[in-house]
Specification:
Two copies of one chain form a homodimer. By secondary structure, chain A is α/β, with parallel strands linked by helices. Chain A is about 30% helix and about 20% strand.
């Protein structure tokens, strides 16, 4: 399976900010918007700041906003304001009718999957409300990825969990959200892929349960390798075991080449990663090399 | 789909206690064993008390114990010592070669699913380490269900979430565990079923995420109705929304007859419930009536 690049973005282009998942505070939004507006013309619906329980407004509101941004040819990129939870609730109605860069992570894993299902690459990267706290290097790399077809530099110094070297399209995202696509029509074609996973706030036995779900669903018979990002705040409080030892055991059970330590996810640094783009994972050397970029 | 009754148990019969999931403390075990031993001859492997991280010993140990109990024709019932996590890890190896009553809940939802997959009924009921703290009424009903083919009395006074009346085999169990079977070969045939769900320690947005997983996997197009047990410790700490209001919204979205308040799950009272047995759910009247028992 190959995933097509999406059209490139240029400085000054119109981009849309949407909130298909959880609500967020205005201050983080304003800071992020300031960063984004240095480069692009950002627009958002007036209803973006809605909050109903754990959602940024009703399903109808979030869907109309997302679909509207996707369907408007003037919009050259779609940025998620925040993850949290809620994108999954839109999957049965949302339609990808156009190739456009989608930017976000965590709960947005569900929308990335739909983009990949439509055959497009997309950008696993900080949400808008994080842009104000991510360093300049991450922001520069985000803009560069949107504007140039060049693959990003390789990640080095990863930890080898299972040695071996493989190539394939990079797919995945947040473990909790990605596993919620198993058994649904929204799981992208995983055959031959390198699976990327990260998570936050999940105890080790829950990581095991989700990983075992992937195993029972046959995912590790389909993908070629696994690369792990941050597993933030995933430790057992009593210290009896660590997420690192549990993930290491789980990786070894798959027998697939696997490396950990990618600076991607819910940690302080969340480096952009192109989903659907081919990568080389050399787990023996601790390297992940992007072979393709996001845009044409 | 119909599920066959399993052979009945008689006082004095040999029964096995197994620990296919998490480790447990010896005191709760001894108290439960005392209750069980008043009625049956209980045996267990010497390795039952093993503990490795969150598991009651290695996968190999837990599998050998479980498979051994299932395969020994002298054993007339298989009681789980505790839930927690770990039964899922055995699914690819465990084989149901005989109809025998299986007793447990929570993480054991994974084993119930395998029993139902094999066409058998099984017993959603307290694990052994809870028998000492469950009231006499629950224990008596547990024994009666194992020993007599008579259906249990109806549950009344349930809360109507969506009115309507349906009949079908009762399937399901713990929401967290049951949804981890989606997309795997271990999900039982749900067509025409009444789906039972309970959970513990899951925030409302997580209940929504799991329920939405069921929806996206097409479960609510297959089952006829839904009945909810206890959702223990599932409240948002800031009180901004409750599990009850979230579950009520979710139930209404399905449009299926749905009632809540079954005294089953992780609350103080965990009344036995026969999975695979036909029930009538009259959500309008707030009644769940078992139409079949566990045993022949």
């Amino acid at each position: 399976m190959t995933f097509a690049p999406v059209p490139r973005v240029s400085p000054g282009d119109l981009v849309a900010v949407v909130a298909p998942a959880g609500p967020f505070d205005r201050e983080s939004f304003d800071k992020g918007l300031q960063v984004l507006s240095r480069r692009y013309r950002a627009r958002h619906d007036a209803g973006l700041f809605a909050a109903e329980r754990y959602l940024a407004g009703s399903d109808a509101r979030r869907l109309a906003e997302l679909q509207g941004a996707y369907d408007d040819p003037q919009v050259r990129a779609v940025f998620a304001a925040r993850g949290g939870y809620g994108a999954m609730r839109l999957l049965e109605s949302f339609q990808v009718r156009r190739a456009v860069p989608l930017i976000g992570f965590s709960d947005l894993t569900a929308l990335h999957a739909v983009a990949q299902k439509a055959g497009h690459r997309s950008l696993h990267a900080p949400v808008l409300t994080q842009l104000g706290t991510q360093g300049a290097a991450v922001v520069e790399r985000l803009f560069a990825t949107l504007e140039s077809p060049a693959p990003a530099p390789a990640f080095q110094g990863l930890t080898t969990l299972v040695p071996g070297s493989v190539e394939g399209p990079l797919l995945g995202g947040n473990l909790s959200v990605f596993t919620r696509l198993l058994g649904t029509p929204y799981l992208p074609a995983l055959d031959g892929a390198v699976l990327f996973l990260e998570d936050v706030g999940e105890r080790p036995y829950r990581l095991d349960r989700m990983w075992t779900h992937l195993a029972l669903a046959g995912v590790f018979r389909r993908v070629r390798g696994v690369v792990l990002g941050d597993f933030t705040n995933c430790e057992e409080k009593d210290g009896s075991h660590t997420s690192t030892e549990v993930l290491t055991s789980l990786a070894r059970e798959t027998g697939l080449p696997c490396a950990s330590g990618l600076p991607v996810g819910h940690g302080a640094v969340n480096v952009p990663l192109v989903l659907g783009a081919r990568v080389r994972l050399d787990a023996s050397r601790g390297e992940l090399t992007p072979l393709e970029g996001l845009v044409a």
